[in-house]
Amino acid sequence: MDYINTTQTETKNSTNISSVFTHQVLPVLYTIICMCAFILNGLAAWIFFRVPSSSALIVYLKNMVVADILMLFTYPWRVVGDLGYGGLQLKLIVCRYTAVLFYLSMYTGITFMSLISLERYFKIVCSTSSVSYFLQRVLVAKTLALLTWGVMMFFMLPNAILTNQPMPKVFSCMALKSDLGWRWHETSAHFNVGIFWVAFLLMVFCYTSIACHVYRSYKRVQRDSSKARRQSNRSIFSLLAVFFFCFVPYHVCRVPYTFSQRHKDDFSNHTHFILFQVKEATLFLSALNVCLDPVIYFFMCRTFRELLLQKMSSVNLKNRRPSNRHWVQYQKSVKTEQQSKTSISHL
């Protein structure tokens, strides 16, 4: 995990460029995705509250919505802090609470993505196996969801509790941690990275197997089903595309960035600065996940898609009704005016 660190090690040039990107550009971008994600996830939550948990897939998708909303809650704090408002007290809140919540939500969402991949794999590729039947049960899915939240909280919440040292003269999130906090931070960071790479390998295996299975099925049937194949591909690979776009760049970038943090003397100030900028840019891509997850819900959950389309059609219908009513009133007024003219002519 990467927390705010105000210790200035860059050159004057680098610091100026850093302030433009991290203190002017990124806050604007985070504000934009915060507003978009608030609308999209609010709509997704409203729809999923109306959808019964009738399958394991819906259970996992609902938990992804919860993780996204928690992650979204941390963005305003980051924006205000990056803009330089709030002082040390705000930085303390970010270090102790919102940064922990951000990473807790992000890696919980990644875990649910891997569970969805596993569920899809057994449902499509191994649909007749007893394991598939077991994993398709709603009770099992709810148990795995609770276990996921429990394990993630166990590893992440101590980072907030152990950030309990007095405010240092040179502010740094890591300086607020006790000795145990340092060790727990490193343990939880390795745990989270391990979750990502396990999820990455699992998703690649599952979706490669699904793609081969779908291709063989269409080839065996030997009929023109290009439209059905496109729909199936969109449903299957929307999650994989979001995962690769949002999370892979950040975790690839973490390798050299973490190495540079541990061996600072082996890297120049300019190299430190470049790696920090790349890390912040790829972290933004991870944050963008809250805007792209609704695409997954739309393609993967038919009930979600139908309710969304129904809601959109009802909104369009409501927008049309006033104009129709006005048109009817206009026709009545014209008819009344014609009748009055006719009666006057008879006089």
Automatic annotation (TrEMBL):
Topology in the lipid bilayer: Multi-pass membrane protein
Alphabetized UniProt keyword annotations: Cell membrane, G-protein coupled receptor, Membrane, Receptor, Transducer, Transmembrane, Transmembrane helix
Cellular localization per UniProt: Cell membrane
Superkingdom of the source species: Eukaryota
Membrane-traversing stretches: 28-49, 56-77, 97-118, 139-161, 194-215, 236-252, 281-301
Domain G-protein coupled receptors family 1 profile: 40-297
InterPro entries xrefs: GPCR_Rhodpsn, GPCR_Rhodpsn_7TM
Family membership noted in the UniProt record: Belongs to the G-protein coupled receptor 1 family.
Name by which UniProt lists this protein: G-protein coupled receptors family 1 profile domain-containing protein
Organism: Cirrhinus molitorella (mud carp)
